[in-house]
């Protein structure tokens, strides 16, 4: 079993995909349709937590449930054959020599499965797509071919369960909510409109119509099976439906309706004579509408093969244009695999962190980190609109440096937790700066830091330590000043508050408190005494980099900036203060008290140079403190950093309880933040190879086995080792490990991280997933929680800006490649195509002698064949890029020698 890539847009084929369990594929559009499609067309379709067209599925439902988007063919009036392989007879043959061969062809948002039955003399192709033209539909084209030498009769019947309600009702009043169903049939399909909804929103009148429709250029259905009960019959089921044994079939007629039952999209077509070699085709439309008329009209637009094929072609072209970055190395599979990685951030924008079978948690939307990390990919592929998106995202920051954790469906919308139980993740203040820095480097738009936005306000104050009893929702979710006016501050002010407040929020070891958790959400049981050394290093790095941006401000002539008057308390300095945990906590709480409900609204001007020096001093102190106190040397002489303290106040990593405990996260951020010296980086890599590396599961595990259910650190230790946050290869952190190593110039070691992960994921026999990067790889090597992972954004950005070394530098285009000799093709070339400064550029890197990164440097640059003088530093000025035409692709050749 193998993934075979076709062309250069990530399209792939695969034989017999149903022989791998847990496979699913995303089919969606930007109008709100979110579907998952398994090889046998199991899965579901929904538009939100409260509007599922098909019954919601988790990963186990894919093989346990009997329902799918099933299509039946009755051959010669007697033989029943499922086009999806979902008949009891076909299931019984799955592991025998009689198994029917299948063939998958797929690409971005399109999926086609072909099944052949030599025994029955038929071949079926089922093509799935969701149109990009705005209709809230999922489309399925059904093609049946007579591959025998004789004429036969075929009658096609669909059997698509119409759940038509909230996911909450899958076990909460499932039967009672079926009683709400009003089911009708019309000329082309079956419609369901529940009278009301029962879910966490209460009892409300329902306004959503659901339906399944079918037809082609010349035919409409001759009848319907609108309810499950009648279709399966007494003693039957969806893999062996009793209704299909009747001869002739006895479906409901058009115009009939029935209420109060589980609905079914059972569309019945007329029996047809099909000559040898002849193909018959139908189109099935499944979807949603604000009215029956709107839904029917939308569906009818596509009930022809011609209309479906047009939608198919348009959808393919649309998503290929969206993924406007491509790669060229000596490994063509890697290039195509990276197309899927590049597509994944778009999937997360659509699905959020829910709504695919493994992602069976939450009720849609994205988290705080997702807002910022998904922007990383957008900055590379689709930078239009990112500026305003970044500005709007800052509206979720509180004055105490924490942030809203309930994010609305609209850009920049943040919602108060009505229960007042929102958690504080200590790492949340790190990510906004990292994304903003990438934006500034890609665009040169330093002035974005002077744009203003409001602050978020709710019950939570003092970094989760207290509640503001003077606030209620009627006052709104925007921070106000003492005069009752909504307060706004610059993005720079927001960044300063996030990072400075964290600097003072320390535990007993003078590292920043873990509180609810950090990036690893499963480190969630050390809120009182836990500390995250790992992310303390990143706050240090942020402050150092903000100081660098302030220096650029000063160089441009800006000598002062305005900040809230209360923030002056956070700009105190001095080693005596920094060393004193109690004094630091006092500074923080005093600041928080001054803005617990309102703040004065007054602003003060401060010197840019003094502010930069203050931040730099804090960053230097943090790094040096960690170097002195957190470096671990094991009994065997291995070296790495301790990254955490548990709720007992004890260090988590090192020689503990007779074994070595090591966590990858702790090493990633000490390397990335430049806290680790070059010598320490080398020792960390050696230790990681010894204690964490396992090629059989894709590379570097998240941690060693602690052999303990560690109740004073986090729920992760309750997971079996090798799964999820407890010792799996967690692709997000593995990717960041590679990124950190590239940043420090350890190209060979970084490539090992990426190549091991790629080779594992791309080997379907091992990873058992379609192309792309999953959230993690489990103990048996299976990729789990595919598609919706922040790992994709970091992989994309790292490959382009670090591996290829093509990156923005205050708006200019810089080249700092770290490609290894084996990454160049036979001609010594590698490269990528992308958008930069709103220009389409193809970058070709030439390494004729295939030298290693340490042995080459950029010796020449040409733009469309003309030499470019870069005066020693391999950078093309933005003005020179912007002088190029927007209407053509431009070739930049970079010679390495």
TrEMBL record:
Signal peptide: none annotated. The keyword Ribonucleoprotein does not apply. Pfam families: GH94_b-supersand (PF06165), Glyco_hydro_94 (PF17167). The keyword Transferase applies. Residues 318-455, 614-804 form the Glycosyl hydrolase 94 catalytic domain. GO terms for biological process: carbohydrate metabolic process. One of its GO terms (molecular function) is glycosyltransferase activity. Residues 77-303 form the Glycosyl hydrolase 94 supersandwich domain. Keywords: Glycosyltransferase, Transferase. PANTHER family: CELLOBIONIC ACID PHOSPHORYLASE, CELLOBIONIC ACID PHOSPHORYLASE-RELATED. This is Cellobiose phosphorylase. It comes from Wujia chipingensis.
